[in-house]
Amino acid sequence: MNIVEALHKEAENLSRQLSAVKGAIEALNGSSKSAATQTKSVVGHSNGRRTMSAAVRARISQKAKARWAKIRAEQSKSKAGK
How many helices (H) and strands (E) does the chain have? Predict the structure, then answer.
């Protein structure tokens, strides 16, 4: 694991802890929102999915297009041979 990944993980952990503390304060103050709802909205990753960079999405797209082009080429060869 490189240092940047470790720092991102630590930042995420601290963000969760901060949102839990804020939720506890809100609960003690009698806020209308529940602490669980508040922690999800503060963290910003309520769906639990990771995000991909544009470069990674482009690379995956290129690989998929190449794979499908190869499949189509093989299919057209088999149809032409019949």
Answer: 3, 0
